[in-house]
Design a protein that fits this description.
By secondary structure, the chain is α/β, with parallel strands linked by helices. Helix content is 38%, strand content 19%. The longest helix is centred in the middle third of the chain and has 19 residues.
Length: 215
């Protein structure tokens, strides 16, 4: 598996801890789980400081009433990742629905004038139609950027340590990220769950990052 080989090389070549950022389905992160057929050596796995991922939701879904898409399409892989022993940062729908770019902010991004900034603004134009017309949100949500932003600016997020597991068999709830912020089951807290974000600061950082890509 090519990605596992690349992660192994990254861990071997580096003397310090590494953080992984994951979006989409999590089959590519199964290497961090002891039950995977494509595991990283224990010495390399120990260098993985954390996995920051976009997926799940403590209180809502977007593909079913209970499940978010990235988890729903491969809950077994997600379960391996969450139970791998590697600390998880979960940027789920609870926080990503707060991390949106307004039309006015998108114009600021467009006016940066660079090729990438303008392209990003055009993408936001396209995807925001759904967010405005169907979800009735006040802007275009930038879901995956939350998992990246936390690694660079954790101070803008509201977080809580808790145990998270994945429902694998429920006829109505398969793929649900079952979060236990109240510690009702007394299980080990394996995840940092993001519940809130300073939206204005997030938008500022996003626009700055997109404009820097043109330099």
């Amino acid at each position: 598996m090519a990605l596992v080989t690349k992660m192994n090389r990254c861990a071997v070549c580096g003397s310090s801890q590494i953080s992984l950022m994951a979006d989409g389905k999590y089959y590519h992160c199964e290497a961090c789980g002891a039950t995977s057929n494509h595991t990283m050596p224990a010495a390399d796995l120990a260098k993985v400081d954390r996995i920051s991922l976009m997926g799940g939701g403590a209180y809502t879904g977007n593909w079913t009433p209970a499940a978010e898409y990235n988890i729903y399409v491969d809950p077994e892989a997600a379960s391996i990742v969450f139970n791998s022993g590697v600390p998880i940062v979960m940027a789920g729908l609870d926080v990503t629905h707060q991390a949106y770019i307004t039309r006015e902010e998108n114009e600021i991004l467009r006016q940066k004038g660079g090729r990438i900034a303008v392209f990003a603004a055009e993408l936001i134009d396209f995807f925001s139609r759904y967010h405005y017309e169907v979800e009735k949100l006040p802007g275009c949500t930038i879901h995956d950027a939350c998992a990246v932003a936390y690694l660079c600016h954790p101070e803008i997020f509201v977080e809580k340590q808790c145990h998270v597991d994945i429902e694998l068999e429920g006829s109505l709830t398969a793929g649900t990220t079952v979060c236990d912020p109240g510690n009702y089951e007394g299980k080990e807290k394996n995840a940092t769950v993001l519940y809130g974000v300073d939206r204005e600061k997030f938008a500022e950082l996003f626009i700055e990052a997109m404009s820097k890509l043109d330099k």
